[in-house]
Amino acid sequence: MKIIVCVKQVPDTSGKVAVNPDGTLNRASMATITNPDDLNAVEAALTLKEQTGAEVVVVSMGPPPAEGMLREVMARGVDRAVLVSGREFGGSDTYATSQILAAAINKIGVEKEDIVMCGRQAIDGDTAQVGPQIAEKLGLPQVSYAADIKKDGDTLTIKRMLEDGYMTIKVKTPCLVTCIKELNEPRYMSVNGIFECYSKPYEVFDYNTLKDDPLIDPSTIGLKGSPTNIFKSFTPPQKGVGMMLEGADKATCEKLAGILAAKHLI
Amino acid sequence: MSTYNSAAIEEFNGGVWVFCEQRQGKMMPTSFELISEGRKLADELGSKLYGILLGHNIEGIAKELGGYGADGVYVCDHPLLENYTTDGYTKVICDVIHEYKPEVMLIGATNIGRDLGPRCAARLHTGLCADCTHLDIDVPKYKEFLRSASTLAPAMIDSIPEDDRNLKMTRPAFGGHLMATIICPRFRPAMATVRPGVMKKNAFDQAKADACEIIKPNFSLTEADMETQVTEVVKAAKKLVDLIGADVVVSVGRGISKDVEGGIKLAEELAEVLGGVVGASRAVVDSGWMSADHQVGQTGKTVHPKIYVALGISGAIQHKAGMQDSECIIAVNKNENAPIFEIADYGICGDLFKVAPMLIEAIKAAKAAK
Amino acid sequence: MDFHLSKEQEMVRKMYREFAENEVKPLAEEIDEEERFPMETVEKMGKLGMMGIYFPKQYGGAGGDVLSYAMCVEELAKVCGTTAVIVSAHTSLCCAPIFEHGTEEQKMKYLPDLLSGKKVGAFGLTEPNAGTDASGQQTTAVLEGDHYVLNGSKCFITNGTVAETFVVFAMTDPKAGNHGISAFIVEKSFPGFSVGKHEKKMGIRGSSTCDLIFEDCIVPKENLLGKEGQGFKIAMQTLDGGRIGIAAQALGLGEGAVNEAVKYTQERIQFKKRLSQFQNTQFQLADMHTRMQAAQYLVYAAAVKKQNHEPYGMDSAMAKLFAAEAANDVTRKAVQLFGGYGYTREYPVERMMRDAKITEIYEGTSEVQRMVISRALGVK
Predict the structure, then answer these.
(1) Distance in angstroms (rounded) separating the CA atoms of residues B162 and B108
(2) If you ran DSSP here, which 8-state letter would residue C92 be given?
(3) Pairing of strands C181-187, C165-171
(4) Which residues of chain C have pLDDT under 70?
(5) What is the gyration radius of the CA atoms in chain A, in angstroms?
(6) Measuring CA to CA, which residue among B38, B44, B75 is closest to residue B60?
(7) Contact criterion met (CB below 8 Å) for B310 and B330
(8) Residues from chain C contacting residue A245 (CB–CB below 8 Å)
């Protein structure tokens, strides 16, 4: 049994976001992290590994420096990693990305008892599209927003969150599951794991590795193969800096209440 | 399936479609919002607007969609569609789309819409833009939008050619620091999921509802198509806080950490005198101090109340993304450099535990004086 | 000289930081206030390999290196001096002497539980009348057939109330002075062994510090560590290594105080300016950071030398001396920058200042370090 987990390296948007003058993101100036939801997927996979002895493989699409992130994921206990990297893949939208990742997962091989896992969404795009699109390209059933996963033989019982409650869904392997933070608490890297991670198997799949897969076609990958294009990107106007009220005492609060009353907000 | 979308896009003349999500036979509010928005787009395209409604024994709720602007509703009724499943819904929707060829397909970006949309787009080989907050067809209208909502130079905006007839789907990226307008020029339908609570609902018109056409398309669905099985659907027992509809939201952030209960109680009191509800930053929800339905921000809810009070919230961009369009933002934070002050209309640099009680009294007094 | 950390060292530091921030910092104030030993943290650290960082995997260690261990103590001390010393005393004072001087049987018997954090370790050298002058040991060990009988007491034993494995020193030949001291591995369950009163301290209040009492304590003969008479040498070598841990603790405390002061002075407004806008503040912070950076180089250099099996006794003494004095100075300055708030328990700098003081005292006072350094210089 094998669990393949898709992970993405993303800019850390928890601090200030740096924007270039032309309105694009200044990625170089921002720290990168492993996408948070993806760590929940990794944790779910490692938990299943502890229960079943499954092999856990992570796969990521990104530039060569993403190796550092993959090594860190291996330091948490993942067995091996694949980086999908190539100029031909650049500029892919979610559709094209799912074609490429699905081809990479095909190359790794999905067998009867295997599971593919993804985070619900990445914090840079927030689309939540790549997981379901990979599932479609692989022809696997999908369950998204998983908040609990139980495995019994070839059947997974998943608590799938809705805004106003949840559904319980049964699905047979092989299948694809997208994970949310309520599912678990990702473990830390361990000291042992860190000193082992550079000796674990690590592979890079480039265009040539994947080109024989029917999913890999110039018309369905990269910028040219992406159904969506950016028409315009822009920065919204910064809301004018508001009024900092002097002090923080009773008079300040009375002044603010007066303003709200005058504006008929209260 | 890929041959489907090799057809010329001109052949897709089936109008603007809205996936109308219902749960347990009850229409989700976002369906009405999207029908209202879809009406505008259909008018710009000079085409018709249809809802597509899936479920079991749901025909009775279809016509109401007409009251918000739908010309007709494709009703797909089947016992296997009673509960949402990715397999069942995707199969039926893609089959019906193949037959009727809509130009545009809008889906509410609910937990279900965000599961269904990408699966359908991948099967149809078309583009999907997630979590849109603004939609246009006509370029002059789009330019008008850019003039108020972007920092692009006027000359740059003027230079956009006016003949583009693609659906222009605008969405925030990186927590609203960047906005991107996406098009899907080569494939149809152009698909978008739209954030609930963003689009304004039209006034309901009973006459239009009565006139709404009900269409029952052919489709096939059997047990063999179902790879997932829903064994139960559980509604959260607790009444969830209605952040989206609230006029006033008082949110708390990490600043309450030294006295969590006390901080939440203060926010509740302030919300009460202002006539609003209590929200929370991601940090508060992640720490387990409040439940996830209170969360405002990129991964939580988008709110635009009349008054938004941020107590002890530093204003990480993810949070700002969910509240920066509020009419009046009041921020109380100990750190005068907190990013929240960059977007606050009124900022008080101070300890929320000291400021909030005084503010509650001052507002009570101001209300009494009116 | 290579000033770059390896990829693994960079990664392990990141992991310590995340752990310290999420698991250790939130408890720091509470365990100080309540004088509570954070056993839950020790269990978590054990699972993550932090209780046996630089020992080989064959004994259950994490397979890391000495610098990675020093960085662990440093990162923990940035947010909690108590948690840092728990790791330091356990690793340097108990695991290290067993690993370095134990027989294969002793290592296989004791190290797996210690290195995985299942058991906490401690070190018993100091006695009421043998502090800086460790040679004045009054605890005795008499060989009777297949076991030794220990009598006497130890004091100020870090981790004492929670440890299950102790490295203890006693006189086997009182006439032979230093050469009559021997080292033993003592289990908590040995008959005649008991733990005395818990000391109430100025700082590192969550760490356990207590007396050990030996009343006809039976220690099996095979628990002699090294040979009879080698105890003093083992103790001194152990303390050479231990000083790296304490130096790292002092380093972290000082760095933690700098971090807090940088943050606070940019928030606090006086005279309508942020404190950080005053040149006095800027210069103070610059000096504080520079001292801690210098301390870091000394600590890391000592750790790398130990890792490479080069002589490092003088280096670890210099690192501890400098880091401890820098930490005391820097934490005191941080409290001053915070003003009245710094003196309250609402902010962590007063705790850091209290925690820092002990680093000038234990595992050799600053005066002892000066003795070690001057002797190494050949000064007589």
Answers:
(1) 28
(2) I
(3) antiparallel
(4) 1
(5) 22
(6) B75
(7) yes
(8) none
Contacts of C260 (CB under 8 A, 6+ apart): C334, C338, C347, C348, C349, C352
d(CA C52, CA C203): 25
Check residue A18 and give left, alpha or beta (phi > 0: left; psi -120 to 50: alpha): beta
Token pair of A260 as six digits:
């709200």
Q: Is the pLDDT of residue B7 over 80?
A: no
Instruction: Divide the 266 residues of chain A into consecutive groups of 10 and give the mean pLDDT of each group.
Output: 97 70 69 95 98 97 96 98 96 95 98 97 90 98 98 96 93 97 95 98 98 93 93 79 83 90 78
Question: C249 vs chain A: nearest CA distance in angstroms?
Answer: 19
Amino acid letter, A220 = T
User: Among this protein's residues, is C187 annotated catalytic?
Assistant: no
Beta strands B16-19 and B49-55 are parallel
B348 shares contact with chain C (CB less than 8 Å): no
DSSP label at A157? E
A12: which residues sit within 8 A by CB, 6+ positions away?
Answer: A30, A31, A32, A33
Buried b (16+ CB within 10 A) or exposed e, B290-328: bebbbbbbbbbbbbbbbbbbbbbbbbbbbbbbbbbbbeb
CA distance B58 to B67: 17
Nearest to A119 by CA among A60, A74, A165, A78: A60
Q: How far is A10 from chain C (nearest CA, A)?
A: 17
Which residue's structure tokens are 């370095």?
Answer: C100
CA torsion sign for B119, B122, B126, B127 is positive
Report chain B residues whose CB lies below 8 A from the CB of A102.
none
Stated length of chain B: 370
- CB of C182 closer than 8 Å to CB of C137: no
CB pairs under 8 A between B and C: 8
Dihedrals φ, ψ of A51, to 5°?
Answer: -80, -30
**Residue with structure tokens 């405002």?**
B296
Identify residue B132 by its one-letter amino acid code: C
Which residues of chain B form beta strands (DSSP E)? 16-19, 22-23, 26-27, 49-55, 72-77, 104-108, 128-132, 134-136, 168-173, 178-183, 190-194, 213-215, 228-235, 248-252, 277-280, 307-311, 328-333, 346-349
Please give the structure tokens belonging to residue A73.
Answer: 């994921």
- DSSP H or E segment with residue C81: helix C81-88
> Bigger pLDDT: B300 or A4?
A4
> What is chain C's Cα-based Rg?
21
Spatial CB neighbours of C291, under 8 Å, sequence gap ≥ 6: C254, C326, C329, C330
Q: Residue B176: pLDDT above 80?
A: no
Q: In C308-348, which ranges are continuous DSSP H helix?
A: 313-338, 340-343
In angstroms, rounded to a whole number, what is the distance separating the alpha carbons of residues A73 and A54?
A: 16
The share of chain B scoring above pLDDT 90, in percent, equals 74
Q: CB distance A168–B232 less than 8 Å?
A: yes
- The number of CA neighbours under 13 Å toward the Cβ of B39 is 20
Q: How confident is the model at residue B2 (pLDDT cuts 50, 70, 90)?
A: very low
Judged on CB neighbours under 10 Å (0-12, 13-18, 19+), B140 is exposed
- Please report all neighbours of A, defined by 3+ CB atom pairs within 8 A: B, C
Of C40, C267, C363, C367, the active-site residue reads C363
Nearest Cα residue to B370 out of A245, A263, A248:
A263
pLDDT at residue B3 tops 60: no
